[in-house]
Amino acid sequence: MDYYKLRIVKNRLMQFLVYLALFSALVPLFSILYEVVVKSFSAINIEFFIKPTPTVGEIGGGVANAIQGTLITIGFASLIGVPIGLMSGIFLSEYSESKLSISIRFLHDVLSGVPSIVIGVFAYALITRSIGFSVTAAAFALAVIMIPIVTRTTEEALKLVPMSIREAAIALGIPRWKTIITVVLSSAKRSIITGILLSIARIAGESAPVLVTMGFWRWWFAGLNRPVANLALNIFVFAMSPFENWITLAWGSAFVLILLILGISIATRVFTKGRC
Amino acid sequence: MKSLQKNPFIFSNLNNIKSISRLKNYFKGDDIFKLVNALFASSIFLLLGLMVYELIKGSWLSIQTFGLNFIVGTKWDPAVSKVFGALPLILGTLVTSTIALLIGIPISLGVGLALSEYLPKKIGFIVSFFVELLAAVPSVIYGLWGIFVLIPFLRHHVYPYLQIVFGFIPLFSGTIYGGGVLTGGIVLAIMIIPTVSAVMRDLFSIVPISQREAIIALGATKWETTKIVISYARSGVIGAVILGLGRAVGETMAITMVIGNKFQIWPSSLFDAWYTMAAIIANELLEATYDLYISALINIGLILLFVTLIINILARLIVWRTLKLTRGIARE
To answer: Do A121 and B58 touch (CB under 8 A)?
Structure first.
């Protein structure tokens, strides 16, 4: 009888521990969201969105140049990363009978495990050392981070398209390439766009590769061989600075960034009803 | 896609039928399309090859100058003697990652179990969503939160009590700055929990329902059933742990912001500042002024690349094998 009681107690205890673990894992999320919203309250105003980074000692200022720079960097990175990821995803899903695809899939897994700082050092060694700290080097690094994500989500999205749809198109005499472009891709359009958006959300928050490839930049966009400002990197530089004004701006930037990233995550989740 | 390949309409031997040479042109697009896709997909070989090549080329000067002494050297002096040794950084990375695993793995295990075993399916779905949001928060925001929220909290409400209780152990003595080794480990733990617990949830949820039914039929409690589930997915859980280690080792911004960035061979206590491999690259690569200095930093990047490659390949193989084995059995 005592042994029986022990088992019951143990069962209760473990149940308690499991829920305790779940609770302690979720506390940081809510704490981060709460602090970012509360602390950015004083930072967010119209000036915040239309003024560039203030100089040391200047009062006010904003992150307009960082928003511009982040958009340029993301756009440039997507121009490189999205086509490669998309084509790789099509290849992996539609030609999976090819022996090549096993090793390609494995290497994409490997690449997605490489730390972003190492990818930053790679872009630094390849591009920054020859043309200097520039948005080109940063965009390249971010594109490398993007490729495995886009590839994986595209592959998964295309695999969900029923085989019968492909067979129906082929039965009509449509060649395979046209089937893929007009029928398969268009029926998986939603999930593919979701994947691309998720990869954009990921690179928007990357600061380590941006730091080593273009560094902190306080001005507006000045050409592809010069650096641009970046929201995520601003947070790092502002947070480590001793100026009250900059620290406020760091919280404001964090708010904008979190709104962008969580917005994309939540929107895609609702959009695809969790299928992706 | 096997069924497409066997489709007689596409893959019939068109060469023997001369009258339909027009059809051959019609299918030429297929070859071109496949080739273009294959070329783009193969760029991954070029990319990874180029990465390894560039990092080795960039660190060649450092490898030539220091050789193996780079890994066992304990001095980092860019200003005067220009000697670089990475041992303290390697130790710093290992220790903070170990702390992250010690804190993060039990919690991840609990979250994985809660999501797959304990919570009702609908609530589990919503909670899963929150856990995934946690994974989407950028590293630099964890760092910001670490500096202004976590560090003050730990310094005033946690560390003093830790010191009172465990102060007799040298690990917990010494001045409390707030930032430091333990804080770094805690932030890393928070960051690996979403990834590891998502993998664990997947592993537990594919354990066949018959396993649970069998043990429940023997009169087992919920926890005893759960133990069977864990032991069934055992090797996959080990894979998930290694995956978390890979993430912790490469994490940069958050740890740079909370660990204190102090180059020393061993910290005086868990509250002392230290340094990691990723953090020194982030802090010094921009300021490196001469070739040997840059080369030493790239050399650290090379070490980091190889460490994470080995960790990740190992973890993927284990997780992949477990998923495959379990699915195979479930199908029978």
So the answer is: yes
